[in-house]
Amino acid sequence: MNFMKKVAVIGAGPSGITAIKNFADAGFSVTAFERCSGVGGNWRFNDPSGHSSVFETTHIISSKYTSFYEDYPLPESASDYPSHTELLNYFNSYADHFDIKKLIKFGTEVKHCSQNKDGSWQITWKNLNNDEIHENHYDGLVVCNGHHHEPRYPEYPGNFAGEYIHSHDFKSAKPFTDKKVLVIGGGNSACDVAVETARVSKETHISWRRGYYLIPKFMYGLPVDMYALKNRWMPSFMREPFTKLMLQIFQGKNKDIGLQEPSQNLFGTHPTVNSELYYAVRHGKVSPHKDIERFDGNTVHFIDGTKDDFDVVIACTGFKIKHKFFDKEFLSFEEGKVPLLHRMIPANIKNLYFIGLFQPLGCIWPGAELQSKLAAKHLKGSWKPKRPLDILIKKELDNPDVNQIDTPRHTITVDDFSFRQRLKKELARAN
What is the fold, at CATH topology level, of the domain defined by 163-315? Predict the structure, then answer.
């Protein structure tokens, strides 16, 4: 058979393990590199590598009914919204079922990737157990290292004199007992952290730069993503106003409890799926504020002229897209749009694939599973895009699934249902 043999996979998180499985199924000799001592990536709570950004009480924001690999369903016993422990068990079970752990070099860090003139890859990696440096060559490279490991801090004038951390380093509310805490952000991590610290802190406050839609985890007795799927028949111009009306009926308006009203459309930012922040604010457990103007010692000044003193500031402000193992001149997605076909194939670099480098309005690994199947077929030569890559990438960038605000945090969003349908359509064309 005339196709490339050796493939390197970087990362053994949810996207990495399905890439390993599907490239191996396609007949490639796969070697995967993973910093941690086991699979699961971001879902390895408190892993010694420091990679994970989940905390003690983290549960996924999509339900078990939409958050599984098609070829390996979650167990029926799983919670409607599984915890990080349940998910890690699931990823381990997946890896064991398909016998892929033998293909993973655990405790290794990829230090540098460069491409040779013939399209092959030179991979330099470090054994973290003995600090030995190794170098190997591969015919294809699959990047699955995720996009939740390089914290993005907000910038404000002045300096904060108290404890200032990013949500990446938040593991438990216990260290914040009897402290006065300010949480920055209105996304899923921010709302979760605010609710958790409010259980033990002296006071918890939350600062929003803009208004956010808060979506409850259940509507009409269903997990909210199942409710959304039932409404897919509705034309898009009707779906958004109908959903906003339902949110008002279920929860009321943000402004009624001191939270900012959103000015963007419903999916102009990534949905914040949280049923507890409204409760916490209405019970006086979390106090809302507008954006920060500046820091002055322990005093935080807000843009509306108010100020308050805090012991701790927790920035829940997202992550940078960073691939340190590439020379920045060779490839960088830190700024601007990410030019990849189906969020995985670059136009001008052969034999390179990114799996899981997207932010769905739902769960990431079902889409990553389909990506990896299509990528393996592309490398094998059994699937080809219909038109030149640069043309297709431009079309994809010009026609996003959702129109989101122009910030560094909103460059890789897809509608998970539509995204998966497109990938399945392409897979159906493959030989």
Answer: FAD/NAD(P)-binding domain (3.50.50)
